[in-house]
Amino acid sequence: MKAEPSTKFIIDASFVLSFLLPDENKTEVINIFDRYTQGKIKLSAPDLLSYEIINGLKGAILRKRITIKDATYLIDQFLDFEITLSNVDLSLVLSMATERNLSVYDASYLYLSQKEGAELLTLDSKLKNLT
Q: Residue ranges of the domains in the chain?
């Protein structure tokens, strides 16, 4: 039985894709996912995460970094994660995106991070600087 997670993080697609894609693994990302698999932390994201992951994998296929077979395996691996997906207040996300000159996608992660009072795990330097 896993230990009860003591820390919650909001995770974005850049962070997850860095873990999934074999040519992108970074030490900080691996450390977070090690803590996650040990049950020491909990991961959450806006419900758009799945679509962003699949879109990122599609881009990796087009750039010939992975094959479709690889992507299918990585989708299955992603689906095995128990990342809590949450709806966001779309009106507030739109306001945040407009005020901070962010994509609606990035604003969704930032909004959820602020709403949940949880650190945002991202490799996007612009987004990281806003947290």
A: 7-129
Query: 100: helix, coil or strand?
Result: helix
Strands 41-46 and 84-86: parallel
Confidence label for 6 from pLDDT (cuts 50, 70 and 90): low
**Taking a C-beta distance cutoff of 8 angstroms, is the pair 43, 49 a contact?**
no
User: Nearest 5°: CA angle at 70, between 53 and 124?
Assistant: 30
Complete DSSP assignment for 2-28: PPPP-EEEEE-HHHHHHHHSTTT--HH
Mean predicted confidence (pLDDT) in 13-36: 91
Identify the CATH number of the domain defined by range 7-129. Answer: 3.40.50.1010
Question: What is the rounded average pLDDT for all residues in the chain?
Answer: 92
Rounded to the nearest angstrom, the gap between the alpha carbon of residue 66 and the centroid of all alpha carbons in its chain is: 20
Dmax over CA atoms of the chain, in Å, equals: 44
47-63 pLDDT, tens per residue? Answer: 999 999 999 999 999 99
